[in-house]
Structures are given as structure tokens and as C-alpha cells.
């Protein structure tokens, strides 16, 4: 199967690259520079040249707060360009696997969200992602939309890496404690997507699926787990005091869902791949970061 990964240099894209290169698939990687999905004609030309069976879109505008004042850019990347991409995939009869977000929900539910729950995004980012989903569904293309949440990994900028940095600089940290979600290891998302690929040649129907962490927690609990694992793997020497604060005490331009738990059971039942064990993901990420630091030190000593 010929696979094209868009956004191959991003957090998820790098994890997808690592996992796909372990398979027998014909893998084509394209960074934002190599294929800019906002260049509609250029994107079509490149996809026509590659002629993939599956396009995996790991490209997104993810600056949640910045999007509130940068609506045009957010909608261009997350909606208009995605709509164009879906039309291209429909024309060339290839599958589109698109990654979406928990921010399409308003966070008012008292339980984990399932795929059929009504959407009601509270931010520009969330709305732009929802519009992208709707455009895909309206395109007539063969698609899988995978909604995920609280993504972290060894790569890019994310909550885990921010906590490790701040924890090394401060003895006390304030972390929001009244927002609940499911942390998700990006490498698990990549593995889940690889797991899906064989189904696409078996009369798989288009649809939307949740794939996120296997247990819910608050940002405070997430931070504490990060620090404990950092001690365990020797990435940190001391754990900072973590103080729980409310969302009102830490206002942000974009409204965050208070409850963004995603139920991944439909994905597990259909594709046989379990929800992300984010505690293991934290450990693996920290081990990688520690090993990478050691390799850099050894390189500098030569």
C-alpha cells in the first residue's frame, strides 16, 4: 500500500514516520515545506504525482490561544485546506485519514464523549477543526477521522516537555486542576493509525473514531505523574510542589473544555488496538529525552 504522510516533521508526523518505516508499505513523507496544504494547486499536483492509496493528514494549526486572534490562518489550515484535500482524495479515489480533536466538544458532559455525541466547540481552534471534519464528510471521499486529545511525545512542544523544563527551574508550580481529559502518547496514535491500514482494503466504511488515553485525569494529576516518572528514570533530581488552581485563576484567550474525556472503545472494538497507556508513554518519552541528552553530551565531548 502506498502511503503519503502530510506534516511529517510535526509531533505526530515524526511518530508516524518511525512506525510506518517499520512496515512493508511504500511510505512517502512530506513536510509542510514539501507539501503545503494551503497551496491548493500544488497539493493536488504532488498528490497526483505520488498517486497514494492513503493520505494521512498530520498537518494542523494547533496554536489554540493564538487562533482566537488569527482566525483566518486557523480556518485556512484546519478547514479550507482540509476541504480541498478531501476533494483531491475523492477525485483520485484514495483514503484520507485525518486527525481531529476533543475541542470539537464543549466539555459540559458528565461522562466521556462518544463519537455520536453532539459537537459544540467553544474556541476558534475547535470550530475550525469541526468545520474541517464536516468538509471531509461532505466531500464524498473515503475517510477516517480520528479524534484525539492532550497529545504528548518526545517531539515538538507539548505539556510533558513544558513541565519537565519548568520543574527543573522552579520549586513550586501552579497547574490547572479542574479540567479533565485523556492524555495520549503520539506514538500510540501513530501505531493505531498503522493498525487501521489493513482494514482500508477490506470494504472498510468511512467514519469518525475516538482514540485517546485509557484513563482520565486532570492536568495536575498529569503533571504529578510526569514528575514521578522523571525521578524514576533519572531525568530529574527533585519533584517540585504542584499546586492545583482553577481555570478562572489561569485565564486563557481560548476556552478549554472542562471535560474532554474521549471514549476509545469503538476504535478498540473495530480495529483491535487498545487506547493509549499514557503512563507508559510518559516513561518512554522521558527515557528518550534522557538518552538524547546523553547522546548530545557525548557528541559535544568529541
Could you characterize what this model shows?
The chain has a six-stranded parallel sheet with strand order 2-1-3-4-5-10, with helices on both faces. By secondary structure, the chain is of the alpha/beta class. The chain is globular and about 55 Å long. The protein has helices at residues 11-20, 40-50, 71-92, 124-139, 159-169, 186-196, 219-232, 265-271, 278-301, and strands at 2-6, 26-30, 54-57, 95-101, 142-148, 151-152, 172-176, 180-181, 184-185, 207-210, 217-218, 241-245.
Summarize the structure.
This protein has helices at about 10-20, 40-50, 70-90, 125-140, 160-170, 185-195, 220-230, 265-270, 280-300, and strands at about 1-5, 25-30, 55, 95-100, 140-150, 150, 170-175, 180, 185, 205-210, 215-220, 240-245. The chain is an alpha/beta fold. Helix 2 (about 40-50) packs parallel to helix 3 and helix 3 (about 70-90) runs parallel beside helix 4.
Strand content: 15-25%
Structural class: alpha/beta
Order of helices and strands: EHEHEHEHEEHEEEHEEHEHH
Runs in which pLDDT lies below 50 for 5 or more consecutive residues are none
Main sheet summary: 6 strands, parallel
Radius of gyration of CA atoms, rounded to a whole number: 19 Å
Give the tally of β-strands. 12
Q: What is the overall shape? A: globular
pLDDT averaged over residues = 95
Query: How much helix, percentage-wise, in residues?
Result: 40-55%
* Structure annotation, total helices: 9
Strand order of the largest sheet: 2-1-3-4-5-10
Alpha carbon gap, first and last residue? 43 Å
